[in-house]
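User: Before I run my own analysis I want an independent prediction to cross-check against. Here's the chain; please return only the structure tokens and, at the end, one sentence I can use as a sanity check.
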Amino acid sequence: MKNSKRVATAVSVDLSKMMAEYDRMLDCQLRYDPAYLEELIEIRGEKLGQWSVTIPQPECAACGGTAVQVECPECATAPRDDCPLCDGRGRFWTCHTCEEEGL
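Assistant: Structure tokens:
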């Protein structure tokens, strides 16, 4: 009898649900939550050891720094469709680096 090792393989990894929700988060329809995104990744088959998933943090288009999603101070009491900051979504993306440098 040969000494053989069984190699575990993943049948498929489905990122479609995660990417759909990530797109909604980028559009500020949802609050950015990387833990929620990680839960949406579907793995069928046998897992290959420990899976390590890094959810992408959005980057600033102007400087390439880290963008953060913040609650809109203008819409804190009542969301407005004509809000100049968030377009009525209640949150928007900003970059602390650009704010500090005045870009």
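Sanity check: Residues 16-26 form the longest helix (11 residues).
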